[in-house]
Design goal:
The protein is mainly α. It has one domain. 70% of the residues lie in helices and 3% in strands. The strands form 2 sheets. The chain has a two-stranded antiparallel ribbon. It has a two-stranded antiparallel sheet with strand order 2-3. It is globular, with a radius of gyration of 18 Å.
């Protein structure tokens, strides 16, 4: 297959392939105790909500690629002993795409806002995923390579490198100035939750800025807010950090960009 043909593909297909590498690895190699029903519940709900809302609002049918990606991500990031939290989270994720919109596009990463909502309001039913993975080094390293390929194809490798570099810097600063054990500070980087966040949530082509500079600024800011939250021992800090940065930086930037584009002569 020619390289030019690959570049023409929707970059979200590569993100979906990255997510399914997690699914396959978790189900067949890491004794992933979250079974297939969570995956199916998340994807089916996301697809149905996407199809119905798009048909109702846009008066047209679409291929729900974005919903498939969102549902797969939700099934991996969340962990619950019940199925309804996956259904609820998928519904919120897709619904928010049609509620918070500026300049013809959704502002918040659908999975981020939905996951933050259920983790904050329903902690008795839902947790994030780190403890359900064995975090075997070779397997995590393999998935890391797939993530880099997916980010590169999505043209968001700059975001990934900026975030990993910033996270590493703040982890070392916490070790030096806050006496946080080095392994504890760096350990999350090889975890499934960190990699899903870095290569899936943080690199969403539909909600990340179009310029390299702003993507780097946002990646650095997320790492900085995450470090602050970790110092104060707040769990799920990555997801909360992304949500906070979206409100403080991403939303104003989207409003500014939209107004700037509308003022340009046609």
């Amino acid at each position: 297959m020619k390289l030019d043909t690959i570049k023409k593909w929707d970059p979200r297909y590569f993100i979906l392939a990255f997510l399914f590498s997690f699914v396959i690895t978790g189900q067949f190699f890491l004794d992933f105790y979250q079974k297939w029903d969570a995956l199916f519940a998340s994807i089916v709900t996301a697809v149905m909500v996407e199809l119905l809302l798009h048909r109702w609002i846009k008066k047209a049918w679409i291929f729900p690629l974005s919903a498939i990606i969102s549902g797969t991500g939700i099934s991996l990031i969340l962990n619950s002993y019940l199925l309804w939290p996956y259904v609820l989270t998928s519904t919120i994720a897709i619904g928010m795409k049609y509620v918070f919109r500026i300049g013809g596009g959704h502002v918040f990463n659908p999975n981020n806002i939905a996951i933050v909502a259920v983790l904050f309001f329903l902690p008795q039913f839902v947790v994030s995923t780190p403890k359900q993975w064995s975090n075997g080094f070779l397997i995590m390293a393999f998935i890391l390579v797939l993530g880099i390929i997916a980010a590169s194809m999505a043209r968001r490798l700059d975001t990934v490198l900026a975030f990993i570099g910033s996270y590493l810097m703040f982890a070392l600063l916490r070790h030096v100035f806050v006496d946080e054990p080095l392994y504890y500070a760096l350990g999350p980087m090889m975890g499934a939750s960190f990699q899903l966040f870095t290569f899936f949530m943080l690199t969403d082509p539909k909600t990340t800025p179009s310029t390299t500079l702003m993507r780097v600024v946002i990646a650095f800011s997320v790492a900085a807010v995450d470090a602050y939250l970790r110092i104060h021992q707040i769990t799920n800090s990555l997801f909360y950090a992304a949500f906070i940065v979206t409100i403080l930086i991403g939303l104003p930037y989207r409003i500014y960009s939209t107004r700037k584009n509308t003022m340009l002569p046609s």
